[in-house]
Amino acid sequence: MSTTATGVSLNSRDVREGDLYIGMPGANRHGAEFAQAAADSGAVAMLTDARGAELAAGVALPVLVTERHPREIMGYVSAVVYGTDNYPGSVFGITGTNGKTSVVYVLAELMRAAGLVPGLSSTAERRVGDEVIPADLTSPESCELHGLLGRMAERDVNAVAIEVSAQAVVRHRLDGVHFDVVAFNNFSQDHLDEFGDLETYFAAKLALFTPEHAKRGVVVVDSPYGQRLARESQIPVTKLATEFGQEADWHLAVTRETLDAVSFVLQGPSGAHFRGSVPLFGKFMAENAALALIMLHEAGVPLAQIEAGLAKGRIPVYIPGRLEEMTTPESTGPRFFVDYGHTPGAFEAMLDALGEVAPGKVIFMFGADGDRDTTKREEMGRIAAAGSDTLIVCDYHPRSEPPEAIRAQLIAGARTAHRAEIIEEGDPRAAVRLAISLAGPDDVILYAGPGHEDYQEVAGQKLPYSARDEVRAALREAGLLK
């Protein structure tokens, strides 16, 4: 008697009729302990290891036993179940420390301009055509990713942009997905609590550039890490440079910067050329757009086809919680932006950009993750203070750590810059209102960290908190927003 699975699930609570249930060993419990619950919900079989088979003895489910860790084969099994082992469209992946989400959204907008039906998977959300699905992880588990791709194929999505974290590569979340083009934009300190050192973290990024995962790559070679990745890639790569004099296949030049947009010119081999703009500030946003354009070009989408779908090269992209302006053209007073950036590299890029275009003072407010990489905190504080006029240090996700101890580390780093006025206000709600009260009509406020998130994690609890909603409410209270 044969059994046909129509889906794959890693969590017994998510099992649907016809699913293959993956009984995975976990830190505290083995997934096979929940085999009966999975069967009751309609699972038709279970894939697990030898220990899982023992735990599920007596459950009326066919059990497939693997000698390897179930995670190592889950992606390939999911690809077969969902029929995504040969996706009927182009699949793009972007990795790097900062800006991955932005590249994914720009890619999706350019795909639409080229007449394609886009789908995306990002830290902020998943999109299947016009359908929006909330996201929990930057890169979903492999069974969820293949389920998403299967859904996209059913909806005739023929171009998919996927944000790829280093964790996704090493934890087999991408297994069974073969990218047409992958890209690398930048690299700086992050996630050392998980990877231990920069070399191990970089190796996880580099592992995406192998024949197992992708056909071709695009690499920004402005930094030593980008140059190294281009040298060590196991697949053919095309190089992009934004720095003058750097050897590359493509070159980007920023032609104009304001708080409202950045304009650029991109030039490539054989006369390839694109002149355009993005409605967000910062050279790094022009770089994100250039990277997305080259990725599509490498997949066989002509730049002229993309340009034909845009009005004068303007890329009308909206990126949830990324340099998202809370004020409006009708607002009076300071401009207020919310961003998801929470690394030294992200802070430096944003504040450097603001230094070029802010008409008045820069007021920067931020906090840091608890129970995460502590070694980056003082550097975050230093960069934040070096690039702003007024710095407000508040709480982000303290988790199990004392929030005042996190703030103390950030402030210690900030003091080494000897530049900004430094203010400590732990309560982010009060900090938002303080920032507004300190700002003049020409000033710019940038709140970094929470971005699109709608919670704050404190002492093991996820408490409701949306920076975007809080800022809008505070602006209305101050009479600066209708």
Task: Describe what you observe in this structure.
The protein is of the alpha/beta class and 482 residues long. It has 3 domains: 7-67, MurE/MurF, N-terminal domain (Udp-n-acetylmuramoylalanyl-d-glutamate--2,6- Diaminopimelate Ligase, Chain: A, domain 1, 3-Layer(aba) Sandwich); 84-308, UDP-N-acetylmuramoyl-L-alanine:D-glutamate ligase, CATH 3.40.1190.10; 324-477, Mur ligase, C-terminal domain (Protein-Tyrosine Phosphatase, Chain A), CATH 3.90.190. It contains 16 helices and 23 strands. The protein has helices spanning 35-40, 50-55, 70-82, 100-113, 142-154, 166-170, 192-195, 198-206, 224-232, 283-298, 303-308, 344-357, 377-386, 403-415, 428-438, 467-477, and strands at residues 7-9, 19-23, 45-48, 63-65, 90-95, 118-121, 125-128, 131-134, 159-163, 179-184, 214-220, 237-241, 250-257, 262-267, 273-278, 324-325, 335-339, 362-366, 390-393, 421-424, 444-448, 455-458, 461-464. The strands form 4 sheets. Strands 8-7-6-9-5-10-11-12-13-14-15 form an 11-stranded mixed beta sheet, sandwiched between helices. A 6-stranded mixed beta sheet has the order 16-17-21-18-19-20, sandwiched between helices. Helix 3 (70-82) runs parallel beside helix 5 (142-154). The radius of gyration is 23 Å and the shape is globular. It starts with 6 loop residues before the first strand and ends in a 5-residue tail after the last helix.
